[in-house]
Amino acid sequence: MKFLENLADRVLPAVFWLCIMLAFDSLFASVLTIISALAHEIGHIFFATLAKRGDISLPRGTLFGLKIDTGRLLSYEEEAITALGGPLVNLLIFATL
Fold first, then answer.
1. Alpha-carbon distance 33 to 60, whole Å?
2. pLDDT score of 83 more than 80
């Protein structure tokens, strides 16, 4: 039962935002948005792993984004690196286009 609760926590927010996007935008724009958002979140996870130099839990989806459990509080420097990781990935993708 715990697995189903965790699955619902991770999947339902994504389904909600996917329905909203498809209702108000074209399929092409929705796919680009999803790819951009995934790259953004992967950037946060990648830089959080670099900053913490340890294990990071699987992200949990919320209506406002993903939550990542690091197992401890991050220092200001680690938090800044993690926070800037997502936008940095988006800027790098934009620069290569």
1. 19
2. yes
